[in-house]
Amino acid sequence: MKKVANCEYCMNYSYDEDYECYVCEVNLDEDEMAKFITNTFHECPYFHYGDEYQIVKKQM
């Protein structure tokens, strides 16, 4: 199963107030970071859909 990269919907993509931009929280190696920066990271193995409703259900 392919994992498509759409960082806006990933749980690992969050806003960093120090840098004032969104960053990937996964510790990427040099090649993966180059793909991420050039926006050619099309099949991200770390993509995890960030469903806020699912997180709230676990908290109840």
Structural notes for this entry:
This protein has 60 residues and is of the alpha+beta class. It contains 2 helices and 2 strands; from the N terminus they run ββαα. It has helices at residues 30-37, 52-59; strands at 13-16, 21-24. A two-stranded antiparallel ribbon has the order 1-2. It is globular, with a radius of gyration of 13 Å. The mean pLDDT is 77.
Brief description of this entry?
Helices cover 27% and strands 13% of the residues. The protein is an alpha+beta fold.
Top keywords for this entry?
single chain, 60 residues, alpha+beta, 2 helices
Outline: globular
Helix content: 25-40%
pLDDT < 50 stretches: none
If helices are DSSP runs of H or I spanning 4 or more residues, what is the number of helices? 2
The tally of strands reads: 2
Distance between the termini: 31 Å
Summarize the helices and strands and which ones pair or pack:
Elements: E1 13-16, E2 21-24, H1 30-37, H2 52-59
Antiparallel strand pairs: 1-2
